[in-house]
Amino acid sequence: MNKPLPVLFQVPNWNKNFTQSKEWIKEKVNPLLFGRERYFLNGFIFDYSLAQSTIKNQRSNYFYNIALGGEILYGDFNYSSHQFVSSNYKNRIDYYNWKFTLNPNKYLTQISIGDDFLEGINSYTYSGISIKNEDIEPRKKIGNYIYQDKSEANSLIELYVNNELLDIVRSDESGNYFFEIPLKYGMSNLEFRIHTPTGETKIYRKIFQVPYEFLPAKVFNYKITAGLTKFVKNKLLYTEFNYGVTDYLTISSGGEFIQDTLNKNLNYFGKAALRISSNLNLNFFYSPKIQSKVQGIFVRPNFTSYLFEYIRYSKNKFYNPSNLKTSFRGSFLSSI
What we know:
Elements: H1 7-21, E1 41-53, E2 61-72, E3 75-85, E4 90-101, E5 110-119, E6 123-132, E7 141-150, E8 156-161, E9 164-170, E10 176-184, E11 186-195, E12 201-210, E13 220-229, E14 235-246, E15 249-259, E16 264-277, E17 280-287, E18 291-299, E19 305-313, E20 326-333
Antiparallel strand pairs: 1-2, 2-3, 3-4, 4-5, 5-6, 6-13, 7-10, 8-9, 8-11, 11-12, 13-14, 14-15, 15-16, 16-17, 17-18, 18-19, 19-20
């Protein structure tokens, strides 16, 4: 006669106590007990470096770098200068930026004035102003996921997330069981250990991959940037609006205006990030006058990953000067 092993008669009480006491699974948010003190002028830091390179029978080259930072006008200010000097050439590049960060709210979180980097349809270094309501501190958790599966009836199932025990459940008479899993950004390695009533232990693994472009459900973010591109001084205006439809679908739309000495380019775009399964993500990009792009990333439990990308280009002298038509890129990565 098949009887459950004696140890399984002792585990249910432990399982009950464990489930009731696993409050540490919930993401804790420590309240702000006092307001941030802001100053008109405060806390300056200065760095510098000098370097010389010498080649035999040639004149020396010199490199100068300085950096200054501190709190000015209740915001964070930084300035840096990089200069190269040779016998017949001299070049100097200056960067400055002032950022004012507001207390957390859903309408406006940061104002940036000066030099900054923008990853729009193209990537630009620009001088200007930018406002946004994106979280200043990186998000850690996007939501909870109900995972359902089936095993032998009355089995004990342990769930480990990144090698830490998260929960223990028992399957019902039909073998069904489920876990509520907190989905965190980045990659999470899930390991399920199934202990059957006959004493057998089965182990299988899954990967959950949540890229940072995904927003939690019903969260809306925007970013508006205006200024001049660094060095070539093209006029630039960029807007982007993102909305988390669910924790597995984020949609975006926006526009980019850039004007050089000859042409004005105004383009609109739409984007979507879709999580098909725990380890398969798809990204879509469409701009009528620029390109259509599909990208997929698949990661196996052993961390072997596959990437594919297909782009169909439109004729555009500014964004597609090489007059490309289509491109396909694939990659494979495996650990040894």
